[in-house]
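We emphasize that the prediction below concerns an isolated chain of 262 residues; any contacts that depend on oligomerization or on bound cofactors are therefore not represented. The input was used exactly as deposited, without trimming of termini.
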Amino acid sequence: MTRGIGRPPRGREADSSTEAARLSRELRAHLRHAHEDDLIPAAAPASKPSAAARPAAPTREAAHRALVEAVRACRGCPLGDARRNAVPGEGDLNARVMFIGEGPGFDEDRLGRPFVGRAGQLLDRIMASIGLSRESAYIANMVKCHPMKNPSSPDSRGNDRAPTPEEMEACRGFIESQIRLIAPQFIVTLGAVASKALLREETPISQLRGRWRELSLEGLPAPARLLPTYHPAALLRQPDLKRAVWEDMKSLRAAMDGAPRS
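Result of the prediction step, given as a token string:
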């Protein structure tokens, strides 16, 4: 699925990729200046960097608003032409855990919010099972607009499809900017598409799930621990996968309980 991710985008996808890259650079600079100018007291000992690990709340909120506005304004690839609403992401800007799916579906396109359909309701229950919620985690997708089988029929249900590698690459700057901004300790990738795209590999999700990885990005204060698992929509189709996801969530809760808050 990820074959071709490294190919340079063309046309409007190139424009979208360039805009996302520009925003990513601006946010990195914004956060770097916050670290240098606003957060590190003059007398702070070098052995205690945690105070500078994240930008102050007002700075982070302003950067998040700028990111949301950029996502909503983006029409750089064909996905933007048929969408009803872009779906930037939502949740706690200081979240320890970030959940990342592949892209918005029909319901998300209508409301401009991630994971609000049946799969989203199941995700809510999955998070609640380990003491998380939409208010304490952050939820986003690899692409911010609804990928459709037939873009000329945006009001039809059952019109969802997975985003292409080129679409995810065009939007990659946005999700990477979100990861840098939230700076989560833990990332849970939901499903094969998001997991393979972020990890840039072709390993089947059945082999990826439940195995901890690390994700490093330039400008991220520390690598995030990344745990792939099945997408909630897959659980609706195959209920027997719920046990595997429960094991993954127990692993996440144990990792959270064993790690100091940053």
